[in-house]
Amino acid sequence: MCRHVAYVGGEEPLGRLLVEPPHGLYRQSWAPRHQRHGTVNADGFGVGWYAGGDPVPARYRRAGPIWADLSFADLARVVRTRALLAAVRDATLSGADAEAAAAPFAAGRWLFSHNGAVPGWPGSLAPLAGTLTAADVLSLEARNDSAFVWALVLARLRAGDDAGRALADTVAEVAGAAPAARLNLLLTDGDTITATAWGDTLWYLAGPGRGTVVASEPYDDDPAWREVADRTLLTASRTEVQLTPLKDPGTGVPGGTPGPADDATPAPTEEHWT
């Protein structure tokens, strides 16, 4: 499992979002408060951020624990950004991919992270390899479930799907192949954040003057944090958050609730501010 966080808003130092909060991602690497699977996220970390007017993000990733990297402490103190995606990793299986297996994964303007696991990997998802081109498969950054899920999402983005559909359809496809999969996905292009709550915790903090933060768990005790219900798609900008129930492929209805497959999906809930 992992912990991850994304932010879009006014320009801030990396450290104010990741290190300084009393329960920020830095501390979540050894003392998460809401993690349901695993306890220590010391198998790698990464942060991707958008600088100036460049639409293509920079990344800094390492194979070891975030607390052991003094260079990151310096970067977090001085580097400022209007948007970021960062993660700390608890590897489900051992592997030799080192920092290549650490989120965020990236392509063009996109940054992506997967908090969860796909039981039976790689066999459980082998049938889905045929939906990718040979180039997609050979271009995987790492040989793990998260990198493969990212390849499925990226293929949809490149085919013209918007971020919400790309995540929702990928979750449905993977959950159909591996019903016990945990698929909290997080995606940003530097202007918007798209995420799924599917098997683990997801929260957001948003409002006037603070931008939008979407995270595995709150980084402080601000009462404005809101928890996202399981089986939900979140789409957000600096001024809006929308929550849409996701259909469980095992039941065909939102939230995995037993019932007829043709039940109507509830309308999205929206929060706006200026």
UniProtKB/TrEMBL annotation:
<dbReference type="InterPro" id="IPR032889">
    <property type="entry name" value="EgtC_Actinobacteria"/>
</dbReference>
<dbReference type="InterPro" id="IPR017932">
    <property type="entry name" value="GATase_2_dom"/>
</dbReference>
<keyword id="KW-0315">Glutamine amidotransferase</keyword>
<dbReference type="InterPro" id="IPR026869">
    <property type="entry name" value="EgtC-like"/>
</dbReference>
<feature type="domain" description="Glutamine amidotransferase type-2">
    <location>
        <begin position="2"/>
        <end position="274"/>
    </location>
</feature>
<dbReference type="InterPro" id="IPR052373">
    <property type="entry name" value="Gamma-glu_amide_hydrolase"/>
</dbReference>
<dbReference type="GO" id="GO:0016740">
    <property type="term" value="F:transferase activity"/>
</dbReference>
<keyword id="KW-0808">Transferase</keyword>
<comment type="pathway">
    <text>Amino-acid biosynthesis; ergothioneine biosynthesis.</text>
</comment>
<dbReference type="Pfam" id="PF13230">
    <property type="entry name" value="GATase_4"/>
</dbReference>
<dbReference type="InterPro" id="IPR017808">
    <property type="entry name" value="EgtC"/>
</dbReference>
<dbReference type="GO" id="GO:0052699">
    <property type="term" value="P:ergothioneine biosynthetic process"/>
</dbReference>
<dbReference type="GO" id="GO:0016811">
    <property type="term" value="F:hydrolase activity, acting on carbon-nitrogen (but not peptide) bonds, in linear amides"/>
</dbReference>
<comment type="function">
    <text>Catalyzes the hydrolysis of the gamma-glutamyl amide bond of hercynyl-gamma-L-glutamyl-L-cysteine sulfoxide to produce hercynylcysteine sulfoxide, a step in the biosynthesis pathway of ergothioneine.</text>
</comment>
<feature type="compositionally biased region" description="Low complexity">
    <location>
        <begin position="259"/>
        <end position="268"/>
    </location>
</feature>
<protein>
    <recommendedName>
        <fullName>Gamma-glutamyl-hercynylcysteine sulfoxide hydrolase</fullName>
        <ecNumber>3.5.1.118</ecNumber>
    </recommendedName>
</protein>
<dbReference type="InterPro" id="IPR029055">
    <property type="entry name" value="Ntn_hydrolases_N"/>
</dbReference>
<feature type="region of interest" description="Disordered">
    <location>
        <begin position="239"/>
        <end position="274"/>
    </location>
</feature>
<keyword id="KW-0378">Hydrolase</keyword>
